[in-house]
Write a structure and sequence with these properties.
With 261 residues, the protein is of the alpha/beta class. The protein has one domain (10-158, 178-211, 241-254): Rossmann fold. The protein has ten helices and seven strands. It has a seven-stranded mixed β-sheet, with helices on both faces. The N and C termini lie close together (10 Å).
Length: 261
């Protein structure tokens, strides 16, 4: 596995979480979807993908700023939660958020490519692997943190539709530069999981069609796009799911064993 294939840095994410590099229009797919029934249903299915009936050790890779751990705990409060992130300020924000909610999660500062933390039954990430030039490598990093027979569950935003990709390049160029669209289909997700050594791979799509709104370009046209995309995304919650494209692509797989660090 290559260790230099990340499209972002810790400073990139610390800037996002603290708002220094972005406007109020910054809204990740996971934030837009987290209150919808579709998103909660998908998260519940992913949390249950290990097939275990008792408490599960869940580790989120790229856990800053903590909102997903909060969401996961609300769905399955009996599980044990932990997270890892390489952005110090983002991790501090996660610690503050989870402490305020009374959630006893264990958080680790470190790079998922090299860090060592206690093994988990379920390694999850939401909007992480598309930030690598080789998504199969990023999916493989999940195996580093799993017990033998553990499960990885991954989602990525779906920006690969031609209309979405064109609008993102035009109005959100910084976002376009840090997202690898090649992983954003069930077939490519399956191929990447299998290349990373996972078995029993399952993939799919969920949610209604969303337009990217992260780091919208400033100016009058950017303002118009920001308003239009917000209206579109709100309307997508009541339209047919998956038409004309789905909001997220997901995948799960079982690890025969951890990879070497």
């Amino acid at each position: 596995m290559s260790h230099d294939n990340h499209l972002t840095t810790a400073d990139t994410w610390d800037g996002i979480w603290t708002g220094r590099r972005t406007s109020r229009a910054v809204t990740l797919t996971k934030d837009r979807l987290r209150h919808t029934r579709t998103w909660r249903r998908l998260l519940t299915e992913l949390l249950d993908s290990t097939g275990r009936t008792g408490p599960v050790d869940v580790l989120e890779l790229g856990c800053a700023p903590g909102r997903m751990l909060l969401e996961l705990h609300g769905l399955r409060p009996g599980h044990r939660y932990s997270g890892i992130d390489f952005a110090p300020e983002g991790l501090a924000a996660a610690e503050k958020l989870l402490a305020a909610a009374g959630i006893p999660a264990t958080l680790h500062l470190g790079d998922i490519r090299t860090a060592t933390v206690p093994p988990a039954d379920l390694a999850v990430s939401f909007g992480l692997v598309e930030h690598f030039t080789e998504p199969a490598d990023a999916i493989g990093y999940h195996r580093r943190f799993l017990r033998p027979g553990g499960t990885a569950a991954i989602t990525v935003p779906n920006y690969a539709h031609p209309l979405t990709a064109r609008l993102m390049r035009r109005f959100c160029p910084e976002t376009a530069a840090t997202h690898n669209l090649s992983i954003m289909s069930p077939d490519s997700m399956r191929t990447a999981f299998e290349a990373a050594g996972f078995t029993d791979v399952r993939t799919g799509e969920a949610g209604g069609p969303l337009l990217p709104r992260s780091q919208v370009r400033r100016g009058s046209l950017g303002t118009v796009y920001g308003l239009a995309s917000r209206a579109w995304n709100l309307a997508s919650n009541v339209g047919p799911e998956g038409w004309p494209w789905a909001a997220v692509v997901w995948g799960t797989g079982v690890s025969p064993g951890p990879v070497d660090a």
